[in-house]
Amino acid sequence: EKVYYRLQSERNIDFEELLKEMPAETRDMMKKSADENMAKTKGKVIFDFKKDGSFTSENPGMDGTTSKETGKWSLSKDKKTLTAEIKGEKQDFVVHELSSSKLSIEPKGQKMKLIFVPK
Question: Is the overall model pTM greater than 0.70, yes or no?
Answer without folding.
Answer: no
